[in-house]
Batch of 2 targets.
Target 1
Amino acid sequence: MPYDPSNPLKDRITDIGPKSYEEFLPPVIKNNFGKWAYHEILEPGVLVHVAESGDKVFTVRVGGARVMSISHIREMCAIADKHCDGYLRFTTRNNVEFMVDDQSKVEPLKQDLLSRKQPGGGFKFPVGGTGAGITNIVHTQGWLHCHTPATDASGVVKAVMDDLFDDFTSMRMPAQVRISLACCLNMCGAVHCSDIAILGYHRKPPMIDAEVIDKVCEIPLAIAACPTAAIKPAKIKKPDGTDAQAVAVNVDRCMFCGNCYTMCPAMPLADADGDGIVIMVGGKVSNRISAPKFSKVVVAFLPNNVPRWPETTDCIRNIVEVYAADAKKYERLGEWAERIGWEKFFEKTGLDFTHHLIDDFRDPAYYTWRQTSQFKFTA
Amino acid sequence: MKHKTPLLDQLESGPWPSFVSDIKREAESRAKNEKGVDFQIPADVCDDILGVLELTYVHKRTHWKHGGIVGVFGYGGGVIGRYCDQPEMFPGVAHFHTIRVNQPGGKYYSTEYLEKICDLWERRGSGITNMHGSTGDIILLGTHTPQLEEVFWELTHDIGQDLGGSGSNLRTTSDCLGKSRCEYACYDTQALCFDLTNEYQDYLHRPAFPYKFKFKFDGCPNCCVASIARSDMSFIGTWKDNIRIDQKAVAAYVAGELKPNAGAHSGRDWGAFDIQKEVIDLCPTNCMAWDGKQLEIFNPECTRCMHCINVMPRALRIGEDTGLSILVGAKAPILDGAQMGSLLVPFIKAEPPYTEIKELIEKLWDYWMEEGKNRERLGELIKRKGFQKLLEAMELKPLPQMVKEPRTNPYIFWKAEEVEGGFDRDIKEYRKYHQR
């Protein structure tokens, strides 16, 4: 019985919620739910979980591009039907996990996954993303589908992951390295607690679209949206010579967050030269050893050099290599930077420390200035 | 292909899966249409996605217009309107609305279910998805306005599946895989996530809040779904009693028979496992000791950071008196800067029907809905009004666990009823003894 547009409420079903997860659990998972004893990473991308019953589930983890076509998903389903009794799962970092209940099934599954290539030579299902390595970059929509981005998402991630591919498929890092991308300050990608964060950022204040602002905007909402009170009401002349209710932007107070644009489409701020990438590092969400930490800005701006963002990939590669060479086993990137001191972080990575990196935003700024004579000299 | 994409084509080389190659594959599949699908939006939609993205790479500015209100009847969330600002050049994506589908717990799927979603999205959408969006939903990326009700009808009637949240709603809840495949899970994240999602369907689909509200469920303090950093109310598994120790397995780690950290460091030669250096000395509370034979943990000092358990998962296990901690107010930067979740409830049991947890949720929502300003996240409200106000509203007793340290300023807001004799005094009486 299809939908009847002439009678939209007839037989309508609402608020049924998601499917129960219990329908989708592979039998070995269902049978041992809550009774897992331990796990091991057998090799990069391959895990075994052992239950109290002695049952084992072997997981092969593969990276995914997050943007996925249904043809790609159907191919995954065919693999899961062939090897995994028709079940699979996704991780929070956009990896896909294929699970089997016997070790003898692992190698054929792995070989099948690795044999599938894209026309350009890329792996459809690269195996890795476990342990002390670099897993998939979680990211947002970017230019592919969002209205506020200051950079692309999928393209930057493709460029960075191509460059870091060997560290997706190996585990040579001192601890796991979590890289995330958010294509604007709104941070749908929540990069504010990542070992390395790639953040799209605007650097020019919004323009005022005089022709339509009084028609498409709730002016008070746009004013209220500004975190620095940089927006005030103003009358402006429309192109046709008539007066219109609008706003004026105090450019000196604008920190380009784009929150006004979210409330008022007549205040766009995207710009080919103004927009680019901020690199933040040292965040984490785990409570392991030290408390969760926010990421810190270490590079205030890198340009959107399409299609492969070489400055961004080089910057990240450099940070990863210096960290890998210098940090102690189990030390997350932020824990390492705190141990050696941030002044040493800049010395060792060779990153330029500029005035942009000194916080000047309200109270949080004060807590980042140094209130001790204990510091280290750098060259 | 319909449009030339020289810039995007450069993203087809290299080992990582290329989304450009993948979208081209879908474009070809639609052009061939071997199954004879009765496409309800233009067959060349994927060509137009690549076309508009290529133009974006030239202009380095997005070509998606600001918002647009669309949705399905009776819901205020779950669908996000999106329109292209070059509809004549790219008619296939003139409308390109997103549909958020509430993913199942732990993101486990049967291929049967995924194939049904694919069939629906092939016929009525672009065939392009995000698996998954940042909040956790299955994202069906791009369809035209007349398809929205049709998609919703088929999702609910044929697949038994509901939409997720968007706007000033309860957002789609998400969880780590919990007890399904992890020995660290201190409570059943999937069961609690599923129960609360169903309990609060109305809040998920009809905007009643000042702004978005996120629940996330982490089974242990490792926080694999990052609840502590990005949910207004985060549920983090923990335990009250002692870490369980298998001394034989400890000895096996020390003897090199078992690989530390479940083998996570096997990509490099870090030398032989050194329990003193790698476990005892790294314990943040110094509550562990190793005398060469026995591992001892002084549990009352333990803050359950998970390090020792992560390093020796076969020797150490979480305790048996398990539950969860509730933290509130995490969010990403806009407007006031990023906020981490703050500890509100150190420990609570997590057993169905979760009555105590629901009482807390409803009190919290009452407070935020009453006091929160338009577009004010819970964390911002807590900062504006103070943590004490939150405790008052929640009817919770202040505990030292809620703070890292007591206040460093003595500017205490005493209330009249807290001071002997109250605030009301008589100036005339005062002046009897004090000249002007």
Target 2
Amino acid sequence: MKLNKFKKLVALAMSASLLSGITAQFAPAIAHAEDQVTIKFWNFPNFTSDSEFKTPEEYDKALIAAFEAKYPNIKVEYQKLDFTDGPAKVETALQSQTNPDVIYDAPGRVIDWASKGYLAPFSDVDTATLNESAVKASSFDGQLYLYPQGIAPFLMAVNTEVTDKLGVTDLLPLNSEDRNWTVDEFQKFLEAVQEKDSEMIPTVLYSKSAAGDQGPRAFVSNLFGSWITNDEVTEYTINNEAGVKAMEWIQEQAPKGIIGQGAALEAKDALEYFKSGKAALTILASPGLLAQWKDAEGLTARFLPFPNVDKAPKYEYLVAGPAVFDNGDEAKVKAAQQFVDFMINDEEWGIRTLKATGNFSAKKDETGLYDDEELAFAEKLSAHFGAYYNTIPGYARMRPLWFPLLQGVLSGDTKDVKEALDAFVKEATEIYEEEAALLKQ
Amino acid sequence: MEFKKFGLYNILSFTLLSALTIFFIFPFYWIATGAFKLQDVAIALPPQWFPTSPTLDNFRQLLVPLTARWFFNSVFVSLATTVLVCATASLAGYALAKKHFPGVKLLFAIFIGAMALPKQVILIPLLRLITEMQLMDTYRALILPAVGWPFGIFLMKQFSHSVPDSLLESADIDGCGEIKKFVNIVLPIVKPGIGALAIFTFISSWNDYFSQLVFTNSEAMKTLPLGLASMAQQAEFSLNYGLLMAGALVASLPMIIVFLMFQSFFAQGITVGAVKG
């Protein structure tokens, strides 16, 4: 009996000590619950160009540390994403409502989330101070959902070390101010490269996967002056006369080998050939990529516009910036927007973060940040951006239709390019109408 | 005539099998040789079928503490999952096959039904559950969802049927307890099934890329396939093929070892029920 009493006493004492421990642990948390906010920031390797940090995640962590030092009541939990499987991770997280509060991304995905009601808008941002094209691309239903920090055109680049060696640099339009060239001039250059060195791949028009597919689309669109959609981004137009002519040109050149064996290659391969000096020219280049090529041996990359019959190319462009998810907690949304504001507008970290992406500022008055001839050239092209169609309803479902279309033309399987383009536009339009109708519901 | 016919058949079979072997083994050969190529050789055109100047650079890049951690994570998660799946599936399979209790058929039907569900369907509620239970980015998040694998239970139930009822009844008469009966009588008989299940589970767990992707956050909790994929891709359009292949080669070694260890069980396991006695 005594023993039982003793056991009970011990149990009571243990329970009390456990409870007091729990209370002691929880008490400070409860006391500070109102002030302290924790937000989650997920980021792809976007900040690759800051020389102080070896990896983009090191940069992300430094940015967070600086923010937390300035705003001690906000804690930022960081998650690194990869470009290959990161989008799938975000989608799964969204479906299971375990998504982040802030993500740094592009309008393609962001506007899709905005249309589904996942995001909180940036209502206080003065959009008049930002690049119009970037604002248009980052908005849905008149509201800004991606805070555009960086913009950059997608264009082409040539390796002048290779062309100098081959003695074909004078065929390039590098000496003119706008560097524009016609399709004939472009073709002459590719043929000259092939003639001088049969081992050298003049360029690669790749079509194996959706990664980097903006390059081939911009290339095709520019040749004879078509575009994937109309300017209002309400209709697919690439099957017009100019689009057909462009595909016919590709169909004619592919067997010659001057535009590479792209039916079996993707953007990564094409860029590796360029970087390693196996290809003279790449149809996918951007300021961000230029920064990545800086240390490559035997590579001096210079930007080139897409060839265009009228020497008036238009550019697909990149818009990058943070977006804030509305996870149903006002304090978190506010804290997340605070973090975004720091990332873009902080005196030190705003410019630094932008420069770490290698992009140009979306702020109209923030120009000439880079002391580099190529970047100065690329910065001027923002006046020639084409319609940003990555936000068209059903864009993600249209992309997988594009590369089989181009593959067919490159491999010679497609005989009638008009028919193929019509089929592409018909299917893409059906997707667009279906998705647009869903949005109206 | 008969001899000639037999000879021709053998030659044709040998040729066909050799061609198929080369066809199926080629990707592995490509990975194994690619692991010794630097980036410019890995992407060379025409392809270099055998590296003329092989390098160990890719393997040197793998020799970092983080890779060791990823390797440990993969081994630990796969082994723990295998042990737990084999333990639970053999117990459940035995119970479903040999124990008569109300609802046993319904329970089995539920397991069979669960087998038809693709993993992607349960991934989202599972992620929610793991987050709610604050298990995100832990070993438990990587191991526990795989335990109670319906296929494993189904497989072990089929094996447990081969345990003679008379043997179990004799054990009962001799006063053998349930645990002793299971360990001393059932387990030795269903051993080939456990061997097959161990291989299936280990491979499935090792290759469960997507679950591992969504259930982990930190670099330290990544498994080898996940870590190598991010290591080989440092920017959006850049991929170090040689490094990726070296990683893939290293990542495939444990599976080869496990397969070699259990292959005799595996052969017995997959032929269960093929020959009726």
